[in-house]
Amino acid sequence: MEEIHVLGKSSLKGSVSIQGSKNAALPMMAASLLHRGISVLKGCPAISDVFCMEEILRSLGAVTWWEDHDLYLDCTNAEKTEIPAFYTGRMRSSVTLLAPVLSRNKTCSIGYPGGCVIGKRPVDLHLMALRNLGVRILETQELLIAHCENMTGAEIIFPRSSVGATQQALLAAVLARGETVLINCAREPEIVWLCRYLRSMGAKIEGEGSSTVLVHGVKELGPGNFKVPPDRIVAGTYICAAAATGSEIELKGVLAEELGAFLEVYRKIGGQYEAKGGTLMVNGKGAVHPVELVETGVYPGFPTDLQSPLMAVLIGIPGRSTVRENIFEDRFQAAFQMKKMGAHIEIDGRDAVIEGSISLSGCVLQAKDLRGGAALIIAAMRASGETCIRGANFIRRGYEHICEDLEALGCEIWQT
Ligand code: UD1
User: Does 330 contact ligand 1 (Cβ within 6 A)?
Assistant: First the structure.
């Protein structure tokens, strides 16, 4: 069992750089399959989800290697078309491989996606988008089996916003015949970054970042060579760490404009920040005010991935705060762990009602998902005594060096 230990009541000081974005890198890796040659993702985060995607690409016949932080993907011979559940069960975003494999090899069978247990995570919208483009899909008990000779552009209307399904549709449409219009699609920055990456490969896309995106299919794509953007969720996590410990830190390589809704809440609780170029000076000393209601929402709303890290801050602020989770129906696992530390949290459906308290005690906790696990580290930093967080492997899925970063900032934290 991999564990992270934290000695509480620490104060942070200093500067750290923000890693490349997991949620931007993974679909870019999938997109690299659309070119039969070598693509490179610069500043790719060395996290276990990226290693897992790399392993799947290798199983399809790709050759991959790292040069420092740059990930090279040679997809010249990635001709296999089967991705068993052994791989897909480990990571939800593996499902975005369906469109690229199908696009280059006309057929793909893929296991159902797994990933963090944060509620039901269906793939109906992914399949709806592909079916609209002419793909035939058989849903068996174990596998999705898809065929298509030539995908043809179409209008795809999403009944609900989905990041993954929008990416799936984009990955299919760029090499489909004719024009595809995506209506009511997701607007998250990771969609915009995927479009930029695809455009750098020669794709014709207009309107990314708005709810309607137009794709003109092209015959082929060239190699990708792109810098992975900084991870907005990791930046937000570290800002929560500063708020929870009342500390002043510097974060290098932050796109503050992608963190608008989060920074608004951070400001409401009394936190201060100053953005200068790509650097964010964060001062969490004044973060002492509860917040009446924070609701997660699709971008530009408050990101669901920062819901648990924020909760780790609010449990230590005297007064009542309410957090409402609107995206996933079972994303309060970390709250039950925080209660073991003495946090007062009542879960009522989609709402978590928090009565903040300054007395939290270190104990043994279990990480159950990636962001919830990171939130437990933050909660541990403000508790008294030592906290042991089991299930550190969940945290490594998305945080490249959270222990090293927090240690460099002065936190007593170690792994066993
Ligand atoms: C992505 C992010 C994840 C983030 C989430 C929401 C990656 C690798 N992961 O996940 O970190 O928490 O966006 O911002 O980028 N849904 C359906 N049918 C579908 C697909 C989704 O009903 O076919 C529902 C989901 O159950 C969920 C909601 O739509 O309730 C949002 O999911 P989606 O935006 O697709 O999230 P992911 O792409 O899985």
Answer: no
